[in-house]
Amino acid sequence: KEILIVQPYMKHPLQNRWTLWFYKNDKNKPWQANLRLVTKFDTVEDFWALYNHIQLASRLMSGCDYAVFKDGIEPMWEDNRNKCGGRWLITLSKQQRMLELDQYWLETLLCLIGEAFDDYSNDICGAVINVRAKGDKIAIWTCDTENEEAVLHIGKTYKERLGLPMKVVIGYQAHADTATKSGLGVKNKFVV
Amino acid sequence: DKKKYDREFLLGFQFIFASM
Hints:
By secondary structure, chain A is an alpha+beta fold.
């Protein structure tokens, strides 16, 4: 008799469980009502099953966001883990939507789920992509603007992972400043 | 021990079930 040995497939666990959020801009509702928790994942395989299933960011309607945050952290300034923090912000031109937006967003996700920031990965809260007619934005959110060592390490590593040229400068803004910004724009607490 | 995965390792799994 032939014995068939079936090897169970073991999924690869991630260091953290992550939540995917989706935001669709419906001006008739308060913004909180437009924010939806889509699903959670904590293995490499489940990440890909989700990523391959959902719409590419470049194909979302203007006014939509994706956000991927550690389980238990909501993608808003007010969350306890965000309110003292800030974000490394990547602003893209309209032309970059078709060329680089999806590639940058995937690389951002791979940095998150792969724990690409060494000991400072604990400072990571999540990442947001805003699809907007006036120019798309991608940002990595960290929990503490005062933890300069962590913020700078995350910024340098992130810039490298995106393959941004040295001459391109990215800025880190505290959420508290972004929340109270006047029309003039938000000052950068750090740049790399 | 921290579960760290580099991008090449992660990318290797994108279509793993399709190839099974």
